[in-house]
Amino acid sequence: MLENIISITNTCIKLGHWLSHFKISSTIVISKPNKTLYDSLKVFRSIVLLNMLGKLIEKAISDKLQLYVVSNNFIHHSQLDGLKFKSMTDVDPTLTHFICTGWVKNLLNSTLAFNISQFFPSLNYYLLSLILRKAGLDSSIIQFFSSYLVNRKMIFSSHFVDVNVGVG
Fold this sequence. Notes:
The chain has 5 helices and 3 strands; from the N terminus they run αββααααβ. The two termini are 39 Å apart. It has one domain (2-161). It is flat. Helices cover 41% and strands 14% of the residues.
C-alpha cells in the first residue's frame, strides 16, 4: 500500500500535475452544541473535508519541501510559525533578541505583525513559482505546485448537521 502511495506521489511530481479529485473539498456546517438559539452564524461551525489520500500525499510533500528549504537556508531565521520544531511561543525571545541587538547598534526598532490566514486565496501563483525557482527546485516540482494551486473546487453542503442527533 505504501509503495502505491509513493508511486502516485512521484508520478504526480514527475508529471508536474496534481490530480483533480484531490483538489475538491467538501464543506459541511454543523451546529455548536448546547446553544439555546440557532439564529446567528456564530453558533455554527464549518468543517472542510478533503480526500484522505490527497492529504497524506500533501503532508509528505510538505515535510520534504520544508526540509529542503530549511537545510538550504532559504527560510529567514525570523520565520517561526508553521515550521517543524518552531512555534509562535518562540516569538518572545526572538523579538527580544532583535530589539536588544538593535539597541546595541543604537538603532530604533519597530514591529509589524499581521495575520496571513486569508493569504492563500490571493496568492500570486507566478510569484510563488519564481520563489520556488530561486530556491533551486526542479522545474517539474515548480510545475506540480502550479498545478496544485489552480482549479480547486469546493462543494458546500446546504443542510445543517445537528451534532446532538443520536447522542443520549
